[in-house]
Amino acid sequence: MKIVFIINPAAGNGRALKRWRRFEKTIQFPFEQVVTTYSGHALAIAANYRESKQVALLIGFGGDGTLREIIAGAAGSEKLIVGSIAAGSGNDFGRAYGTFTDAQAIEQFLHKPLPKRQDLGEFTNGKAFQFVSSSGIGFDAEISISVNRSPLKKKLNQLGLGKLVYVVYVIRTLLKFEKFTLSVKCDGNLVTYKDVWLATVNNQPYFGGGMKISPSSKTDDGLLELTVVHKISRLKLLLVFGTVFSGAHTRFKEVTQMSSTEFWLSTEKPVCRHVDGDDAGMSPANDLVSYTVSQTDWQSIKLTDYIS
Fold this sequence. Notes:
InterPro entries: ATP-NAD_kinase_N, Diacylglycerol/lipid_kinase, Diacylglycerol_kinase_cat_dom, Lipid_Phosphate_FormReg, NAD/diacylglycerol_kinase_sf, YegS/DAGK_C. Keywords: ATP-binding, Kinase, Lipid biosynthesis, Lipid metabolism, Nucleotide-binding, Phospholipid biosynthesis, Phospholipid metabolism, Transferase. Its cofactor is Mg(2+). By secondary structure, this protein is α+β, with helices and mostly antiparallel strands. Helix content is about 30%, strand content about 35%. The chain has 9 helices and 17 strands. Strands 6, 7, 8, 9, 10, 11, 12, 13, 14, 15 and 16 form an 11-stranded antiparallel beta sheet that branches. Strands 2-1-3-4 form a 4-stranded parallel beta sheet, sandwiched between helices. Strands 5-17 form a two-stranded antiparallel sheet.
């Protein structure tokens, strides 16, 4: 099996490349490496391996966005397996799917490869957007996009305080965010929610750097989970966010959750969207958009002793 490391030098605000140089020296088996140079490059790399029909383990050395691109490029292949080494800022991918801890862990996998089929979420709105972990509309999307664009993130990461930038933007966005109306069509029923802060479609439990937004989500059950936070005061929302890391937010009456193979979502005005924390434009006003499990799945490392 060919081993290919796909390294995003921009991950972790530029620290990933330095970390890779150290990691590379510990590898005792043959491998290839490719360093990405532009947004979408990891997707193109994985797609090339898919089209060549080579048997390979593609290991993303980066963050959640890097892994999303690799998986989108590899999806549908019977010959490609995707693994990861967490080198980004949020690293929610590793929390759900596992991540290699060192080169020796990869060698253990090579002795007994146990891939596992996984779901891939998607929605189409002008173009197809695929997501591995989650796609959100509203408050969480505005925060994620603002954090990714913020020069403060880079400065705090350099001090080892990168997670504080998320707290800063939660508070900043909390003060100025304009709530919206959301219509949800699910299993033939149409429900409208007023005063909505966010709606997040999940394929796994985590988002936002360790927040357990959707505790019941499983990555391979053919289902997605929708979480809607609505009709809640700004002060209470701050309290709710404080409980998301443990998953206790689901006890609040203002948090609605449901599970299905497909959701149709519509907002009465354009609202920020994200896929796995990256900008996905704005939701179209009054248009129902389908969020579903993709017809093409992908293979990940089976969660066993060689990852954590």
